[in-house]
Amino acid sequence: MPKSPDPQEGPDPQDLWRAATRRLTEAGIDGARLDARLLLEAAFDWKPHALTLGTPAVSAEGLARLEGFIVRRLAHEPVSRILGLRDFWSLPFRISPATLDPRPDSETLVQAVLDRTERAAPLRLLDLGTGSGCLLIALLAERPQAWGVGLDRAPAAAALAQSNAASLGVGGRAAFAAGDWTEALTQMPTGRFDVILSNPPYIPLGDRAMLAADVRDYDPALALFGGVDGLDPYRRFAVDLQAFLVPGGLLALEIGWDQGAAVQALLQQAGWCAVTCLPDLGGRDRVIVAYSPQIEPFCDAPR
Known about the structure:
disordered C terminus; disordered N terminus; alpha/beta; single chain; Helicase, Ruva Protein, domain 3; 2 domains; RF_methyltr_PrmC; two-stranded antiparallel sheet; elongated
């Protein structure tokens, strides 16, 4: 006969998974089954996929942690925020309330820079609004001869980015500082850069109410909103950043899905060259690349 369950053994892990999934589903949480598994693994410190590979141990401490995690997810806090960790470019980044939660769409910006630089080149990179440092660190991981500087207006974000760089093996080639973008650059003896990149705040202030709760309530407003029309950072970049790039240097900017034409026009009017809009994997405008002017008549040469 099958063995009767021992009442001292505690809840069955599969039952916990089903119950957590049901609670999240009833609250309208998309991806409830996956979220429940990730929260269980974290609460009980199980290895990934332990639920499908065996019968992992259940502890009273883990049950208390799990309940806290579920309550937070029911309030639409993202799993990455609950765990303090987000994978980006196949690298694990710690995140905090001071940083944006990196999205897969931003990998389009990393790829755009990689496509336009040489692996062995001793590149000098600048990341404005670095947040967790995910963009700069991903590029340094792919460009072993490069070094970079990341700036963020939030000191806590700059400190966390430095910690991420160290844990991901590029700390010796990265420096992070707090400051107001171009104003901070004037105080840094770094010279000019080969590449400047940024995922700036670009959401119009009037769109706040339309944002999903997991963005509106948990991403820092400093990293989300770019003025009345969302274009304030690009206006500054268009005018200010040529002074910090070498001639022919690369500028790569993430944009909102409907901002391609407007940002292209701002850069072209300011004299940037070969301004191009690139789509993300969903086919939406996502990245603008441009080059600082070189000696004429080569400014408009295709790249």
